[in-house]
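lol ok so funny story. i was supposed to be doing the assay writeup but got distracted and ended up predicting the structure for this chain instead. priorities right. anyway since i did it might as well share w the group, maybe its usefull for someone
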Amino acid sequence: MEIIGWDIGGAHIKASKINFVKKKTLTKQLFCPIWINIDNLNKSILKIKKKLGGCDYHAITMTAELADIFKNRNEGTKKIINILCKAIPEKKIFFYSNLKTFLKKKEALKKTDAINSMNWHATASLISNFYPNCILVDMGSSTTDIIPIKKKRIIAKGNNDYKRLVYRELIYFGVIRTPITAIEKNKNLIYENFANLGDIYRVLNKLPKKIDLTPSQDNKSKSKNDSARRIARVFGKDYKKKDFNTWKKLALKIENKQKKILKENINKIRKRNFSGSVPIIGAGIGEFLIREIYNKNNYFSFDSKLKNIKKTNVINCEAAISVALLLNSFLKSKRSKF
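and the output, tada:
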């Protein structure tokens, strides 16, 4: 049995092919700016398919319906479903829903609210099998999910992006695409998108090149010096190489501010849902940031309980891996009933 799990995002597409017999996993990630042209989605799907090869089934989760190329989320979800079912044989496709089950195309088109923006739910659903009481923190390129799990149940108060934002279970910052001004509130700033947090973490040498796929704001190099130059512009200054360490110190201050905001929100959700300490499970591109906050203090990474899946294949592909594993369990349970 081979399953490819897909996490269709508005900026990136992540896919994970799991061979359940040979116990091998392959992953592929592509930058895919769907908001610029919907054709980018079809091209990326075909490119990843070619790279990963054939399989028995495909498991899908998505957030790309949020892209402003679509009139609304419902329209976006339906278009994405149809594109996927043209690029991949429809009979092989299953869509993850927040009912902890999978839907085929016909039902998915009718129940778009149950499948759109549910990648966080898929990841939490898998983690609940290993950590029955915990908080999953999945930090990506532009968003952070903080998901409480209690007695193996996802107990998030929000069931859509709006409510999750209200309850601070979704924070709209990550470690790459987020503007620096979302963290640094200094009044003497230029509120233009000259730089983003990706530049901060490149200067600090914390972004692995393999997962740093988003182009820089000026489409120029992602080197430390070019990243520092973009940061300097936000502060109204011109960059000089001799001043690199000055900008590195500033980058460290901004990182610490983001850590503080993140920890405060995690603590609020913990106090709201648990009487004492629970494990914090880190996932996503920004997993390094969460790990540094807790420094092994009841902290575990997403892959800590996964067997036969290399850490290098996991980073930023957690939702894709999760839906593949969940679909395998779902199909097993269906077969056992007959």
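Residues 244-273 form the longest helix (30 residues). DSSP finds twelve helices and twelve strands in the chain.
back to the writeup now i swear
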